[in-house]
Amino acid sequence: MSEDRQPENAAAAARPAGKRQLTGASTTSAAQLEAKKQVARNAGEEKVGGGVAAFLPEVGSELKKVIWPTAKQMVTYTIVVFIFLILLTALVSGVDFLAGLGVEKIFVQ
């Protein structure tokens, strides 16, 4: 039986076995694929940043670019945040209280 499966000539031995190879969709050889991987590895080895030593000076230069809020803006933002927190706390407390009343009404007789 194994004799029936072995190809009789070299052309049959080189016949592609996968679906893509049968349709001719992929003509990439193993050598071409390995070359592409090597190029990708070499491209990835290039340094993008300046390393650890350049980090702190870069942070300083970026902080100089920041437009910092004035004292009046900070007071306004703080008041807005406190009002928002008070409203959300009241909302959650109200929902909790009403849910407690509903549960008490259902389960306690």
From TrEMBL:
Location(s) in or outside the cell: Cell membrane; Membrane
Domain of life according to the entry: Bacteria
Keyword Transmembrane: yes
Gene3D superfamilies associated with the record: Preprotein translocase secy subunit
Topology with respect to the bilayer: Single-pass membrane protein
Keyword Transmembrane: yes
InterPro entries cross-referenced by the UniProt entry: SecE_bac (IPR005807), SecE_sf (IPR038379), Translocase_SecE/Sec61-g (IPR001901)
Transmembrane regions listed in the UniProt entry: 74-95
Signal peptide: none
Keywords per UniProt: Cell membrane, Membrane, Protein transport, Translocation, Transmembrane, Transmembrane helix, Transport
GO molecular function: protein transmembrane transporter activity
Pfam annotation, one family: SecE
Main location: membrane
Region span, Disordered: 1-25
Job description of the protein: Essential subunit of the Sec protein translocation channel SecYEG. Clamps together the 2 halves of SecY. May contact the channel plug during translocation.
Subunit relationships: Component of the Sec protein translocase complex. Heterotrimer consisting of SecY, SecE and SecG subunits. The heterotrimers can form oligomers, although 1 heterotrimer is thought to be able to translocate proteins. Interacts with the ribosome. Interacts with SecDF, and other proteins may be involved. Interacts with SecA.
Similarity comment text for this entry: Belongs to the SecE/SEC61-gamma family.
Family annotation (HAMAP family): SecE
Protein name as catalogued: Protein translocase subunit SecE
Organism name: Corynebacterium kalinowskii
Organism taxonomic ancestry: Bacteria, Bacillati, Actinomycetota, Actinomycetes, Mycobacteriales
Gene: secE
